[in-house]
């Protein structure tokens, strides 16, 4: 008689919203884990690594990671330190531990190290696991089948037994929490998976016994189905299972576990918590344990999507939502919370036609709106947008190479999204240093980047755009069609409509797509030498990019040629790391990943920018000293940076001044971005005062080397003269104002560095 048939929904679908990625309700940056000391097993990669990252972002004071490979543990600890500091937390105490859970002495040694180094422990995350390839029981290898139990059950038993005394010691007023990572597989019957699935069922039962034995001593234990992630461990499953099941991100697992353990949740103790709804997976009819799913709002089922579409045209009503929608916070979140526009509805169009209908409706109601591409705009002018409709362009996230080697990019795509298909075609294009910035938003302001010396700005490569005007009209702009609008789009484009698709020219890759990268650090005593070396490079080789005391030097060419530039710094650098990196990976890997780490959302980022002809040695010395003293006095601002971007100018300057609305050809040598980043808003005012003061000093003619202030629009704060952003020439003012009157006569696109509607407005 065959086993009872499976069915697609085994009672594990508790909410209509199915989570596959992290979401605002479990954002670790909103949790407070200060003072907590945590151990995570199996943290060298995969979900364990993600858990460590999440604790770092939540401010945990101590994070110990175990891995079978010491180098993996060391790497994760380095990442943890960097993430904590980037999120504005003090550097945590880290312990990288090489541990074999099948070796009792290795486990005991790890416990001794934690006892000696910390003398306390709040939380243990038993994440390490082993999975033998799926085969029927009679075909299985006994050693592999039993090794699954040695790691998943006996290993968990050993580490828990070794650390329980430290967790429960009376003088430790800690959280006394254990999280055992189980699996949805514990509730499934998958052919060939007996070793893994039965061992994970045992983990769930062992979690309950910990509560039976130690609850009266304050212990809380949970078992967790963290997520279904395509990790190295999962690769041992049949490919068909991986494809069908492993659809979640590791961040979902990490952030869920930090949410669970950030405070004592006795109502969940001894139970199994699911980070995501699993209704789409085949299970038998026999459930073997109580499960709970934590939704965005509470343990109850989340409400279905509620619409804010009262009055909206029926064609788009389903794409409009109000704050009661469970996804509302996530879909309206932006990179910076300084100074935040606010939203009472979100419109997520699925096509240009929907976008057209939506804009036509919004214009008829005088409702304020803001379009979101990457969400990285941080100008102070955005604070005038309140109780608005966000137009989230996420459904326009595509980048497609064309037969003529151009690339069509939707306005929901980031620079990294754009880079991948271009690189796969053996081509390249100028992109910004940060991979998660929206490609379209950056292009509208010009688009500086490492390859601009060879290919000009990102906007210089634009061949056509398609956009929707305030009244819903869909138009194209290029050199042949609406050429005046096309001129204005490239440098002032946010003023005239919403661009939903851009066509770019691409270029043959330099050096086969492999670029030389050198990361160098220096002590303050060598600052003069560093500045002299930087200034000696002007005018920069068109293949060279020098975003700068740590320096990241990138040369779009061979290693031997790149080393010629590094040699100018090698005599006084304290560290030098050289590598050859594929162009497609450069944004994430250059500068040790520090720029990419800035993609973290939720901080306040207050930017002030200056553009200078060169680096003034005397003033930069003063800035260096002032920065050090200021951060020491205000540690909540430790994540703030002063960034120098020095790129080649040849590709920009090769084009005439009237080529586009971008006004700074011939005077964009050095971009100095002062970024104040923080979580604690009590430092907002003093941070703004310090950054503004230095912005004004650096922009003065005697320091900048230009007769009047020059500002790169995408980095501008918003209180500068508009001519500093768009150019001082009268003909520019006249042309831009004429375009504003023509394409945005109602001033609907005026929330971000608005072009004046009259010439008097330029004053």
TrEMBL record:
Residue segments, region Disordered: 1-20
Record's keyword annotation contains ATP-binding: no
Keywords of the record: FAD, Flavoprotein, Oxidoreductase
First and last residue of the signal peptide: none
Superkingdom: Eukaryota
Annotated ranges, domain FAD-binding PCMH-type: 338-509
Cofactor(s) the protein needs: FAD
InterPro entries attached to this UniProt entry: FAD-bd_PCMH (IPR016166), FAD-bd_PCMH-like_sf (IPR036318), FAD-bd_PCMH_sub2 (IPR016169), FAD-linked_Oxidoreductase (IPR050416), NAD(P)-bd_dom_sf (IPR036291), Oxid_FAD_bind_N (IPR006094), SDR_fam (IPR002347)
One GO MF term: oxidoreductase activity
Pfam (any one): FAD_binding_4
Similarity field: Belongs to the oxygen-dependent FAD-linked oxidoreductase family.
Name of the protein described by the UniProt record: FAD-binding PCMH-type domain-containing protein
Organism: Aspergillus brasiliensis (strain CBS 101740 / IMI 381727 / IBT 21946)
Organism taxonomic ancestry: Eukaryota, Fungi, Dikarya, Ascomycota, Pezizomycotina
């Amino acid at each position: 008689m065959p086993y009872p048939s499976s069915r697609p929904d085994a009672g594990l679908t508790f909410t209509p919203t199915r989570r596959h990625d992290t979401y605002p309700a479990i954002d670790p940056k909103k949790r407070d884990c200060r003072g907590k000391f945590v151990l995570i097993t199996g943290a060298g990669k995969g979900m364990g690594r993600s858990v460590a990252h999440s604790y770092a972002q939540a401010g945990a004071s101590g994070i110990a990671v175990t891995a079978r490979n010491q180098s993996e543990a060391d790497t994760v600890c380095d990442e943890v330190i960097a993430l904590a500091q980037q999120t504005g937390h003090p550097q945590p105490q880290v312990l990288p531990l090489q541990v074999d859970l099948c070796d009792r002495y290795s486990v005991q040694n790890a416990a001794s190290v934690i006892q000696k180094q910390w003398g306390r422990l709040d939380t243990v995350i038993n994440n390490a696991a082993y999975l033998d390839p799926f085969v029927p029981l009679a075909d299985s290898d006994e050693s592999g089948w039993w090794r699954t139990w040695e790691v998943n059950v006996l290993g968990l038993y050993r580490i828990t037994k070794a650390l329980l005394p430290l967790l429960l010691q009376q003088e430790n007023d800690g959280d006394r929490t254990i999280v055992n990572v189980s699996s949805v597989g514990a509730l499934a019957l998958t052919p060939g998976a007996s070793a893994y699935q039965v061992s994970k069922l045992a983990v769930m039962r062992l979690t309950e016994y910990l509560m039976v034995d130690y609850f009266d001593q304050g212990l809380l234990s949970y078992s967790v189905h963290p997520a279904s992630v395509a990790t190295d461990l999962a690769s041992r499953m049949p490919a068909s299972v991986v494809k069908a099941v492993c659809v979640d991100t590791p961040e979902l697992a990490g952030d869920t576990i930090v949410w669970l353990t950030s405070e004592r949740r006795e109502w969940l103790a001894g139970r199994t918590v699911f980070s995501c709804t699993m209704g789409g997976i085949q299970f038998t009819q026999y459930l073997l344990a109580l499960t709970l799913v934590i939704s965005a709002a509470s343990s109850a089922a989340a409400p279905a999507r509620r619409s804010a579409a009262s009055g909206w045209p029926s064609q788009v009503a389903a794409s409009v939502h109000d704050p009661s929608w469970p996804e509302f916070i996530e879909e309206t979140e932006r990179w910076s919370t300084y100074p935040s526009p606010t939203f009472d509805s979100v419109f997520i169009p699925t096509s240009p036609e929907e976008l057209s209908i939506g804009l036509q409706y919004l214009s008829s109601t005088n409702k304020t709106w803001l379009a979101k591409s990457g969400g990285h705009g941080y100008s102070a002018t955005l604070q005038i947008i309140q109780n608005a409709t966000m137009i989230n362009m996420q459904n326009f996230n595509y980048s497609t190479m064309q037969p003529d080697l151009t690339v069509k990019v939707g306005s929901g795509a980031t620079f990294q999204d754009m880079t991948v298909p271009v690189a796969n075609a053996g081509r390249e294009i100028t992109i910004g240093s940060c991979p998660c910035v929206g490609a379209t938003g950056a292009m509208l302001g010009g688009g500086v980047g490492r390859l601009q010396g060879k290919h000009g700005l990102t906007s210089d490569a634009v061949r056509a755009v398609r956009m929707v005007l305030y009244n819903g009209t869909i138009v194209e702009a290029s050199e042949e069609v609406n050429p005046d609008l096309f001129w204005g789009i490239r440098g002032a484009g946010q003023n005239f409509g919403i661009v939903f698709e851009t066509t770019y020219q691409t270029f043959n890759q330099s050096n086969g797509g492999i670029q030389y990268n050198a990361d160098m650090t220096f002590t303050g005593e060598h600052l003069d030498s560093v500045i002299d070396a930087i200034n000696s490079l002007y005018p920069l080789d068109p293949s060279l990019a020098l975003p700068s005391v740590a320096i990241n030097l990138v040369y779009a060419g061979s290693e031997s040629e790149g080393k010629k530039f590094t040699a100018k710094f090698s005599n006084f650098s304290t560290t030098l790391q050289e590598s050859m990196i594929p162009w497609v990976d450069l944004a994430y890997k250059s500068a040790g990943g520090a720029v990419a780490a800035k993609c973290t959302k939720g901080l306040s980022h207050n930017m002030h920018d200056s553009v200078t002809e060169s680096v003034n040695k005397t003033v930069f010395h003063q800035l260096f000293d002032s920065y050090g003293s200021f951060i020491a006095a205000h540690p909540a601002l430790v994540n703030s940076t002063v960034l120098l971007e020095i790129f080649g100018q040849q590709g920009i300057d090769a084009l005439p001044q009237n080529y586009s609305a971008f006004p700074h050809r011939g005077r964009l040598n050095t971009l100095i971005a002062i970024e104040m980043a923080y979580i604690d808003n009590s430092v907002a005012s003093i941070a703004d005062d310090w950054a503004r003061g230095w912005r004004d000093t650096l922009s003065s003619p005697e320091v900048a080397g230009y007769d009047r202030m020059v500002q790169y629009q995408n980095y501008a704060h918003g209180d500068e003269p508009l001519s500093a952003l768009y150019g001082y020439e009268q003909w520019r003012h006249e042309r831009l104002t004429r375009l504003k009157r023509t394409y945005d006569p109602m001033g609907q696109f005026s929330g971000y560095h608005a072009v004046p509607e009259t010439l008097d407005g330029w004053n």
